[in-house]
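user: can you give me the structure for this one chain? tokens are fine.
assistant: on it. calling the predictor now.
[tool input]
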Amino acid sequence: MISTILFIDIKGSTRLYSDLGDAKAVGLVREHFRILFKYIEKYNGLPVKTIGDAVMGFLIDSRHTIQVAIEAQQALREYYLTWNYGYYGSRYSGCFDPPMPLKVWMEPTMSTISAPEVSVFIYQTCT
């Protein structure tokens, strides 16, 4: 089976922190993580860790990787359009599509790992 290591990162996050300040930007990034974790887990994937504003995930079945990226992007776009801190609401309304673009990187890997073994594999790989 071909599995995938998935990285999803907010494009332009340095500007986000600069414009909003740390407290508001961190709140936005935490919600970004929550949404990404939800869609990785929806397809039996494992959110491995966060790195700055990026999420690293592992999907046992690589056929789900694109679906995770598409659905997460759609959910994030909906969230950003209702976000009330003003960063992408009144100040930048309509300037971005999606409001906060994501950088998505996928690395297919051959795997004989089953779902119960994923956490052990990730721990050994990432530590």
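assistant: here you go. The chain is about 45% helix and 25% strand. The beta strands are 2-10, 46-51, 54-59, 102-110.
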